[in-house]
Structures are given as structure tokens and as C-alpha cells.
Amino acid sequence: MEDSKILALVDHTLLAPTATWNEISKTCDEAMENGCASACIPPSFIKLAKEKCGDRLTLCTVVGFPLGYSSTEAKTHEIRKVLDEGATEFDTVINIGDARMGNFDAITQELSVLKRAAGDNILKVIIECCYLSEAEKIALCKCVTKSGADFIKTSTGFGTGGATIEDIRLFKAHVGANVKMKAAGGMRTKEDFIAFINEGCLRLGTSAAVKVLSGGGSEGAY
Length: 222
What we know:
Layout: H1 3-7, E1 10-13, H2 21-33, E2 38-41, H3 46-53, E3 59-63, H4 72-85, E4 89-93, H5 96-101, H6 104-118, E5 122-126, H7 134-147, E6 151-153, H8 165-174, E7 180-184, H9 190-198, E8 203-206, H10 209-213
Parallel strand pairs: 1-2, 1-8, 2-3, 3-4, 4-5, 5-6, 6-7, 7-8
Helix pairs in contact: 2-3, 4-6, 6-7, 7-8
């Protein structure tokens, strides 16, 4: 698979809590130079990134990240604020406690509210697979489908584990036809990227792809 085809599916990501504007700006430059699907950056940098990049780059940001247990109202406010500032893709974390307690109707309801706030823009739902049983993952596939969200995503990259092929195959078996898949966390090599794409992922969340595919090795935790 050509490097350019892989990079076109990459959300080039920098979400480290220590990230500075200089580092975020470099991430945006790399995303534009390499034809990435987006730059995924913290919400506090969206306004600056939009001023820098204009319409040359799709800006993705995170909502309720990385723990997911902020209120629906807070998550909705986050989406509306960064939408006004130039973000057009939103990766939100579910309330993992609700999933562990079986409160799947509450999760569906929250995701429906967030999708309405996002409107025609892309909402990706992080279910943080490393904390969940198979039955919980299957139930969450149904929540994401019912809510109208656009993507189901494996991981934040900040949990105890990242994307696995097994989880992507589970998603494929249980999400609705309109739900796409994003793998994130733990991908380090070109072979990793290709394996997830071949399983049907239409986005990869990674900080490593640009460097790996330009021959510089891998770095970063996401």
C-alpha cells in the first residue's frame, strides 16, 4: 500500500498535556505536507490552528477527553465552542462508568445530544476498549449506531491499552452500516497501519505515522 494512501486516513495526533503551540504548529504543518485526513489537537489550540491553516487543513479535537465522565452539558459546550473556532471533527469519550454499570440508554442519549451539537460535522465515539468486556463493547456498538454518530473508535491512547485487530473485528460484526471505524493507540509500524486499514478502518489516530512513513522511526504514545 502506498504511503500516501495510508496518510490520507491518518488523524495526525498531538494530545500530550505538555504540548506547546510550537509543537502543535509543527503537527499541523506535517499534516498538511503529508496529506493527512486531519490534525487532531487539544481544544485549547483550535483557534490558533484555524488562524494558521485556514481551510488547508481539517481540524479535529477531543471532547470529554480522556476520561469521559464530564457532564453531557460540558461536552456539548466543548463541541459548540470549538465548532465556532474552526474544528469540524470531534472525538468524544463515553462515560465509561455508565458502560460498566450497564447504563447504555444513558450513553445513547448523551451521544445523540452530542451528534446534534456537531450537526453535519463528524463525531467519533471513543469507547476505550481496554476497560471493557466483550459484552460491553457489543452493547456500545449498538449505542453508537443508534445515536447517529459517524465513527466508533477504539481508544484514547491514554488508557491501559490501544487498538487491537480483535476489537476492530468485533466492531465490524456489531455496528450499523453507517458507522465507520477508527483505530487509535499503539500502532508503531507501516505493517500495523496496513493491518488496521485492511480490516476496514477508515481512520487511524496516531502520532507516529508521519515519522514512520518518512523513514524516521516511531515516537509518541498515541
